[in-house]
Amino acid sequence: MTVQFYLRNPDSTTASALYLQVRVGGQRLRLTTGEKCLPAQWDERKEQFRRSYPGYQEANELLAALAARLTEAHRRQRAEGGTPTPASLKAALAPAAAPVVREQNLVVLMSEFREVLRGRGYMRDTLRHYLVVGNWLRDFALHRRRPLLAESYSLVEHDALLHYLTLTRELAPNSVYTLVKNLKALFNYLQQERGYALALKVASLKATSVDVEKVYLTAGELEQLRTAVLPSTLVPVRDVFLFCCYTGLRYSDVLQLHGGNLENLPDGSGRVLRFTQTKTRTKVSVYLTVAATALLEKYAAAERSGKGGRLLPVYQNQVMNRYLKRLARLAGLEREVEQAAVVSGLVRKQAVALHELVTMHTARHTFATQSLLRGMPVEILQKVLGHANIKTTLICAKVVEDFQHQTMRRIWDGQGATDTSAGLDSQICAVESAA
């Protein structure tokens, strides 16, 4: 290989372009160097700029560097078993691509990831979890006075984060578990979709969830609540809660019930609710029992049948939960429930009055447990609740200790299940197959 520098027009009276020529393997490569000079400023024998050329030293160093890069590329390609060509040598002279500067701050990346999930159609409640995780990461970074960086995040830092959340901020184990789960989702996204080189294996980030005691009302407590004398302002809240106890609806679903969700059975034997669950976006069909139908008819005013009308008077979830605790106390729901929590590595137990624990979701647990107690098969309950996996439904079955006791009495003492109450249908809800 030979490298030569020459003026394009050595006889010109004006500045002429300086070219680089390489001969390799019988082929020729010509490239402009980007320099121009008068013929009198160029030493053709030495192939260098003369002293009369402004900045001649830097210009000559540039020519030497170009020749050196070509020679180095020629040797490297041969050492690698390749055949140098004009094209491969030209590529060696191309400027190196600027390194891609990736965002490293985990707090910023979590926020960006949340927007990606929003664009992919994730539900608002799911996005809210990622917002909370981002806030905890931000607080931890402020606590230790340095940012959390994605590609250098290590198990040592992860243990420090868990220590901060568990001991300093006293988060519950399930809150820590949710944070770790969402953090792993972020790391998988960065590694698999954005090409980040992580310093750890995502699978090594672990946290343990714990089973939380599900609160529900017994048949007697449900009747006690139904017959309680309450202020008029609390009656609609009680009715919405009872409707969810009779149908198993989540708050997000009862909030948006409208006339289009009601259908009469073809044989005229009753009505059903057909709707798409807000949380899972699965279609569910629920038969309306006498108790549930009575509540709908109570609020079947003209203003609830028009466009945009809702079947029941539902307030915001926080308002509903606040009113529920008040009306449960007025109804005398004083049964003490043991609440166990892990705080700073210690299990703390305390007895809490039932009325302090009642929320809108208690209605769904009540429906599930009372349906099982009345003999509804778990497979049917799964369809009514809209669970994709029957294991989710079995979580409800695990907490029904009365159901276990009744089964043992039936098997060992020959006694049948007797947990039915006056004033309620013996079967709270029945499933109706969706068309």
From TrEMBL:
Write down the superkingdom of origin.
Bacteria
Gene3D superfamilies linked? Intergrase catalytic core
- Cleavable signal peptide: none
Q: Output the GO biological process annotations, alphabetical, semicolon-separated.
A: DNA integration; DNA recombination
What InterPro entries is this protein classified in? Answer: Arm-DNA-bind_5, DNA_brk_join_enz, Integrase-like_cat_sf, Integrase_catalytic, Tyrosine_recombinase_XerCD
CDD domains, per database record: INTN1_C_like
Alphabetically sorted, this entry's keywords are: DNA recombination
Q: What Gene Ontology molecular-function terms does this entry list?
A: DNA binding
Pfam families from the xrefs? Arm-DNA-bind_5, Phage_integrase
Q: Where is the Tyr recombinase domain?
A: 212-409
What PANTHER family does the record tag this protein with? PHAGE INTEGRASE-RELATED, PROPHAGE INTEGRASE INTD-RELATED
Protein name in UniProt: Tyr recombinase domain-containing protein
Name its species: Hymenobacter rubripertinctus
